[in-house]
Amino acid sequence: MRTPSLLWVGDGVVMERLPHFGSQPGLGRQTDRESTQDKESQDVQTFQNNDIFRILASGKRGLQKLPFSRALKIAATCPGSDFRLSCTMRTLVALLPLLLIPHTEGSGHWTYPDNEWSEQYPTCAGKSQSPINIETENVLENRTLGTLELTGYGLQDGEFLLINNGHSIQLSLPSSMHIIRGLPQVYTAAQLHFHWGGKTAESHGSEHLINGVQFDSEMHIVHYNSEKYGSFDEAQTEPEGLSVLTVLIQAKKGQDNIYYEKIFSHLSEIQNVGENVTLNSIDVEHLLPHDSSRFFRYFGSLTTPPCTQNVIWTVLVNPATISTAQLEKLQNSVLNSNNQILQNNFREVKPLNQRRVEANFSPKGKGKESRLWSRFLPKPQVQGSQEA
């Protein structure tokens, strides 16, 4: 059994590279309980730290630095492994191998707002950055975009890891989820995560704006180009490697959204960075708005470091709806790497520059389509109008 070793780090940075794998003395600290267990448990190493862990794993390109939230990818880089890691950041237990957790953030330490990101990640100052303010009067109609055809988005049973990665809550998605039409090629789902605002429901936190109006929250369903690239890791740095399906979220007083609650009900279990819980089923289709036929399309970047500019953005016109109680739960339940409540984890909008925003419908149309469009436009202080 080839077991990767973990480093116990102090500031989210790997302190050294390991020359080989196997048992490494002095890495972290083993608990007394571990020392009394059988040989299988000797592969269990416990670490304790308030910052992000880093892990070294052997991949196709040799030793790689990976953020802790991608630790589960060891299963792919060490074929045949059947070991367990028990890593503690205020009691974190990760079972390996499980589903892969694709990760699109940089390896260094960063926080919101994004004022200093470009010092460590120069691409964050690029000319094709995301998010943006979508000004509908400047949106170009492009009927050739067609409509999205999604497969595998319905109810699925399995093991889906929900984790607090220090910047958001992130849910792993099965490789059977695809966008097979409405994009240049087939894109396969990898993970979804959320962005939100401050302490109360009056604090908005979507990343994309429509006509200058910010929604209450935003969900990103991250996909990679599985026709051109063999894995998420390969695609995330390559041209047209990624595609993000964006759902704007509005909060209203009233009953909870039962489908979002299947995620939000576990937030108390992932309060600390690195903590995770396994969901036995997911239903992403019902996280989308009832009408997901209309969308905006533009080319941009990741909204987190390293801000790679290879993302095809699809922003659904209709918002999904959750309750104000659910929004406030999202805003006040999990901590960041500084042990502070994780809030306002959205990036400010960036200049459009020479890019164009297109839509698969006419936002400036007349007649029936114009009346439909007027329903989708958010009004000041009224975050959307379409029930999820």
From TrEMBL:
Function, in words: Reversible hydration of carbon dioxide.
Enzyme's top EC category: lyase
Protein name: Carbonic anhydrase
Domain (Alpha-carbonic anhydrase): residue spans on this chain: 108-361
Gene Ontology CC entries for this record: plasma membrane
Catalyzed reactions: hydrogencarbonate + H(+) = CO2 + H2O
Enzyme nomenclature, EC number: 4.2.1.1
SMART domains in the cross-refs: Carb_anhydrase
GO molecular function, one term: carbonate dehydratase activity
